[in-house]
From TrEMBL:
Domain of life of the organism encoding this protein: Bacteria
Enzyme Commission code: 1.2.1.85
Taxonomic lineage from the root: Bacteria, Pseudomonadati, Pseudomonadota, Gammaproteobacteria, Pseudomonadales
Pfam families per UniProt: Aldedh (PF00171)
Protein name, as recorded: 2-hydroxymuconic semialdehyde dehydrogenase
Entry's Gene Ontology molecular function annotations: oxidoreductase activity, acting on the aldehyde or oxo group of donors, NAD or NADP as acceptor
Keywords: NAD, Oxidoreductase
Active-site residues from the entry: 256
Family: Belongs to the aldehyde dehydrogenase family.
Domain (Aldehyde dehydrogenase) ranges: 18-484
PANTHER family per the UniProt record, alphabetical: 2-AMINOMUCONIC SEMIALDEHYDE DEHYDROGENASE
Length: 488
């Protein structure tokens, strides 16, 4: 008799709450059911929002900025104490290499809380002096207050990193939160609720509801009129849907959405560094990072050499179990997502792509053949109008095209409905500064990729997002700022 599967519960008003209706959490490594997840009903979502709202009138409202910062440090310590449990949870849900979960996902979870603890502790406010017409002195200053209840809806690609990237500043600014993690990655969010409970966060300040989007916990949450602000990370079309829901009641929104990012490689680059960098930016997390490069433009003199080096690099990637020595690529998140990515592999062939490497599914000859693995794939030869060069695949794939001039490559990079990130490889830093500011994107990395200073604004242009988070931009989004003017 097999032991019952773990049950991942909701967390509402300081208690773990099961639901009658559950859904399976399926391993993308081998297709096994890992746990059953409690799907929150509309009534339970309403209870979570009500608990968050009343927590605004409770002990949490008495916390000073420094006490809130101390609480965030306790939460960071709590995650660190259970670090390996978080790693195991993230790896089980997503199939990613253990090493990545350790050094990126969970490490950033701890770092996010510590960063916003210090940012809020050091954050001052603004003060202005002026003289009125009657000669009296006028002092104006600002105060930051919480919005109240913040809904946080997060995706499955970097579950812990992206959830804590929002929870930390929201709590730092004194809000209560109701989080709705992706149905495809429920485990680390559930562990985070346990850490919040252990840290002694007052009941109702942090709430977790599991479920899906439309006609499930996600939609119930965004339509609840007592939600004061919504921060969402996910697909652009989902963002548009949520924006409509947020518009009823005119709530603040912050969106981190899709991308079709470019890497631009000039002939004067450090060639080996550029190859290693573009392999990282194309295949990290099996290409399931919103910042990944799915479009690569290479200056013509080094184009053939670069394609050959990328092919060799992609074919050296070790795809396998998360804990295998030297593994650098795991599965995709789900069979459903793998079918989407394989659909683009098929579409590329019909659009006339040269398939330099990959384009299919690795055969392991074991239980992993029941998982959601695909081969790292490189295309060339497609036109800029091809769907595979314009639409986000969100898998381990890139298209490499040659270019001849700066103006040409800038025009082609900007010819996109998205505007999230660009990675630029050149030794000529004068050119780097000049070219970087001409890309219509939220972020440009020069001779690196996904290197993050959390004090900087993060976000996208066009379909890639709305607003900026990071550093004081997060404190601004998660606060209601009042100006107080005193006629002395
Ligand atoms: N810009 C960024 O920083 C960033 C970061 C990570 C992922 N992304 C994007 O996210 C996408 C992949 O993530 P995904 O597949 O989880 O995205 P998704 O939009 O399908 O889902 C994201 C979250 O929204 C919820 N949701 C879906 N429909 C909803 C609705 N109508 N109302 C309320 N909630 C709803 C889902 O349950 C999930 O929790 C990619 O497009 C990627 O580019 C962007
Ligand atoms: N928001 C961040 C990363 C987003 C990654 C997208 O998949 C971050 O590094 O803070």
């Amino acid at each position: 008799m097999s032991s019952p599967l773990p049950l991942l519960r909701n967390y509402v008003a300081g208690e773990f709450v099961a639901s009658e209706k559950t859904f399976p959490n399926v391993s993308p490594i081998d297709g096994r059911t890992l746990s059953q997840v409690c799907e929150a009903t509309a009534a339970l979502v309403d209870r979570a929002v009500a608990a968050a709202k009343s927590a605004q009138e409770g002990p949490w409202a008495e916390f000073s900025v420094s006490q809130r910062a101390d609480m965030l440090m306790r939460i960071a310590d709590g995650i660190e104490r259970r670090f390996e449990e978080f790693v195991a949870a993230e790896v089980a849900d997503t199939g990613r290499p253990v090493q990545q979960a350790r050094t990126l996902d969970i490490a950033r979870g701890v770092h996010n809380f510590r960063t916003f603890a210090e940012l809020v502790r050091q954050s001052g406010s603004e003060f202005f002096e002026m003289r009125a017409a009657d000669g009296s002195d006028v002092f104006s200053y600002t105060v930051r207050k919480p919005h109240g209840v913040v809904a946080i809806i997060s995706p499955w690609n970097l579950p812990m990193l992206l959830l804590t990237w929002k929870v930390a500043p929201a709590l730092a600014c004194g809000n209560s939160v109701v989080i709705k993690p992706s149905e495809d990655s429920p485990s680390s969010a559930t562990l985070l609720a346990e850490v919040m409970h252990e840290a002694g966060l007052p009941a109702g300040v942090f709430n977790l509801v599991h479920g899906f989007g439309p006609n499930s916990a996600g939609e119930f949450l965004t339509r609840n009129p007592d939600v004061d602000a919504i921060t969402f990370t996910g697909e652009s079309r989902t963002g548009a849907t949520i924006m409509k829901a947020a518009a009823e009641g005119v709530r603040d929104v912050s969106f981190e959405l899709g991308g079709k990012n470019a890497a631009v490689v000039f002939a004067d680059c450090d060639f080996d560094a550029a190859v290693a960098g573009v392999l990282r930016s194309s295949f990290t997390n099996s290409g399931q990072v919103c910042l990944c490069s799915e479009r690569v433009y290479v200056e013509r003199p080094i184009y053939e050499r670069f394609v050959a080096a990328m092919k060799a690099g992609a074919e050296q990637l070790k795809i396998g179990y998360p804990d295998e020595d030297g593994v650098n690529m795991g599965s995709l998140i789900s069979h459903k997502h793998r079918d989407k990515v394989l659909g683009y592999f098929e579409l590329a062939r019909s659009e006339g792509a040269n398939e330099i490497t990959g384009g299919g599914v690795p055969v392991f000859g074991d239980e992993r053949d029941n998982g959601a693995y695909v081969q790292p794939t490189i295309w060339t030869g497609l036109s800029d109008d091809a769907r595979c060069v314009r639409e986000e695949v969100f898998g381990p794939v890139c298209h490499i095209a040659p270019f001849d001039t700066e103006d040409e490559v800038i025009r082609r990079v900007n010819d996109s409905a998205y505007g999230l990130a660009t990675a630029l490889w050149t030794r000529d830093l004068k050119r780097a500064h000049k070219v970087s500011r001409r890309f219509h994107v939220g972020m440009v990395w020069v001779n690196t990729w996904f290197l993050r200073d959390l004090r900087t604004p993060f976000g996208g242009a066009r379909l890639s997002g709305l607003g900026r988070e990071g550093g004081r931009h997060s404190l601004d989004f998660y606060s209601e700022i009042s100006t107080i003017c005193v006629n002395a």
